[in-house]
Design a protein that fits this description.
about 110 residues, mainly beta
Amino acid sequence: QAQFVESGGGLVQPGGSLRLSCAASVPILRFRLMGWYRQAPGKQRELVASITSGGSTNYADSMKGRFAISRDNAKNTMYLQMNSLKPEDTAVYYCNKDPPYTYWGQGTQVTVSS
């Protein structure tokens, strides 16, 4: 069974925005730290942003000022607001806890192109 289900991806022009959602099958309060990850074809998966159960956040350098991670513990859902998107943001985006489970969901495709 998938523990996390990602949604909200799509095709967007450079400079556009998307909001990704991650629905968990278990109460996420049990996860002190969760994160969004992404993987482009031929590239390794990288951590995009992380958030503690209390709401403290951290971002990879290239995402700082553009992305915002959040979580709703009552709804067992995590979000990633993506603004000022660039072509190099094109990737499949995944959610997981940190450190991640070895199992990954299907992810959601984000394509940034004019």
